[in-house]
Inverse folding.
């Protein structure tokens, strides 16, 4: 398919100059030219999501109609070559009678486009296409949502877009209610580490649903990351970190429950752990001058009405996690000894002989372990891929301990445990800072 650059245009929308040279498919440029300028754009990165994307599209349509009836709106599906008919579902999904959904007359038409993206395979290239398309049509406020959501409602579109469109924020992160054992990578590493590093309490920095301004989309496009591993595997945490370190106005919106295909944290998460944590560690290299100066964290403004939601049960195999941790102690001792401080390594070894019912991975030990791995990644103590894979058994040991500690705890009590972990990351940050350039 022929490509050409997004044509530079000399106009202002939402206070940001629109100009870029990001390649877009010729067919997409033609469709965007027919649509013309829009006010609100929502993008969906997709790949083989035919079973769920129809619901997502209808929710976006209803959100546009209910909350932005006077704005010109565009829905764009940036597809990675689906073979299950995903683009066709996007083109044909519709709300038959808006009055039954909105108790109002049918609103103005919602423009929708589906297009393949180009570049390295992965969500990053899909979002790059969305950013470039948003810039091309001069969108004033934008959002992206995942294609596999089962809990998205029209209100999500309002909560992601309105803080940008009406209140001048540049980046809107999601705030969810999730099962206490869903999102353990976020809860044990990504959220507390990102919070300690950059000083902003963005609770779901890799949530998948975000709102953003035209100025931030332009800033994203200018960053030299689009052929990197960060863009391929860690674009969500990259977006959050880039917004914070770029000095943009950040907030978060409460969206309710996030229901998707949740997994037992002891199964099939090794690849995700290495990709996401690898991205966090690489971003630490880029922004070291900033995070080394941050002393404490502060909350960010919140939108939306928080409420209690029912969540789907999630089975957790603690025995399997403890088995992998014990195997790590036996088989990765020579690696961990090179990565962990001597006292930390000795303490980790002692955990292998603790009976399962009494197993606990102390919070301070876990934080020191994560910081030691970050330092080893920085110093390239061992091959970085091997280093990240060697973190997995430790993460599973910590997760097993978290499950055992919170088996009878409700959502509020679990959040208190996570908050204490975050504070420990912040208290121990000098340990990381002092050793970073040693």
């Amino acid at each position: 398919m022929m490509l050409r650059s997004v044509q530079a245009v000399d106009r202002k929308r939402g206070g940001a100059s629109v100009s870029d040279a990001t390649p877009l498919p010729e067919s997409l440029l033609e469709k965007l030219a027919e649509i013309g300028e829009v006010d609100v754009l929502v993008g969906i990165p997709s790949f083989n999501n035919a079973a769920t994307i129809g619901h997502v599209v209808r929710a976006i349509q209803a959100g546009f109609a209910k909350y932005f009836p006077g704005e010109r709106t565009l829905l764009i599906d940036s597809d990675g070559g689906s073979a299950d008919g995903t683009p066709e579902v996007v083109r044909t999904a519709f709300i038959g009678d808006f009055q039954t959904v909105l108790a109002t007359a049918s609103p103005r038409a919602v423009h929708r486009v589906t297009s393949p993206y180009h570049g390295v395979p992965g969500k990053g290239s899909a979002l790059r296409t969305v950013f470039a398309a948003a810039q091309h049509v001069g969108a004033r406020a934008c959002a992206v949502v995942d294609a596999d959501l089962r809990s998205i409602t029209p209100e999500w579109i309002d909560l992601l877009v309105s803080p940008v469109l009406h209140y001048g924020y540049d980046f809107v992160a999601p705030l969810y209610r999730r099962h206490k054992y869903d999102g353990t990578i976020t809860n044990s590493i990504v959220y507390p580490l990102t919070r300690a590093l950059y000083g902003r309490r963005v609770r779901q920095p890799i949530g998948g649903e975000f709102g953003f301004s035209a100025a931030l989309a332009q800033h994203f496009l200018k960053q030299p990351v689009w052929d990197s591993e960060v863009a391929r595997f860690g674009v969500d945490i990259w977006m959050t970190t880039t917004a914070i370190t770029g000095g943009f106005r950040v907030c978060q919106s409460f969206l309710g429950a996030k229901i998707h295909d949740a997994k037992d944290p002891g199964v099939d998460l090794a690849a995700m752990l290495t990709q996401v944590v690898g991205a966090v560690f690489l971003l630490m290299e880029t922004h070291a001058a900033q995070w080394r100066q941050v002393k404490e964290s502060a909350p960010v403004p919140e939108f939306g009405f928080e409420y209690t939601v029912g969540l789907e049960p999630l089975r957790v195999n603690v025995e399997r996690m403890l088995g992998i941790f014990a195997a790590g102690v036996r088989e990765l001792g020579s690696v961990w000894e090179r990565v962990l401080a001597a006292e930390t390594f000795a303490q980790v070894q002692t955990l292998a002989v603790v009976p399962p019912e009494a197993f606990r991975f102390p919070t301070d030990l876990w934080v020191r372990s994560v910081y030691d791995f970050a330092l080893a990644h920085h110093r390239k103590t061992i091959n970085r891929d091997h280093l990240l894979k060697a973190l997995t058994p430790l993460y599973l040991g910590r997760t097993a301990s978290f499950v055992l500690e919170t088996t009878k705890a409700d959502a509020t009590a679990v959040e208190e445990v996570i908050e204490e972990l975050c504070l420990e990351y912040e208290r121990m940050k000098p340990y990381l800072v002092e050793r970073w350039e040693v």
